[in-house]
Amino acid sequence: MKEKYNFEIDANSQSILIRLSPSIFPSPAILRAAYHFIEMANIIIGETTEGKITVTLILKKDKITEAELEDMAYEFNIQLISSSVEEEESRKHAGARDMMMRAALSAPPSPPGGFRPPPRPANNPSPPQP
User: Based on the number of CB atoms within 10 Å of its own CB, is 126 exposed (0-12), middle (13-18) or buried (19 or more)?
Assistant: First the structure.
């Protein structure tokens, strides 16, 4: 097993073990990053006795080289950062999103057939007909 940064690669078992700190990466971001690999690997998520989250990726088919496994581990970390940023942005904008949803849901429904302009006031004559 080859250990590097936050991951270990086992070329014999075609697996990658990734250790993550839950204080740095929120659980939803870890799950989204893992989901990105669901087609190519079996995924096992667990926790160490030290409280770190572990993600094990075990390739489903096609034996690949140690370098390709390492690239996969780096790609997982990229997905993890991307998912973490998305999670933070979502949390940051939750208030505005909720306010827009409440406004949209409280608007009166459109009439059947779509939008119709409001009726003209009685004191304004209708525009001339061609």
Answer: exposed
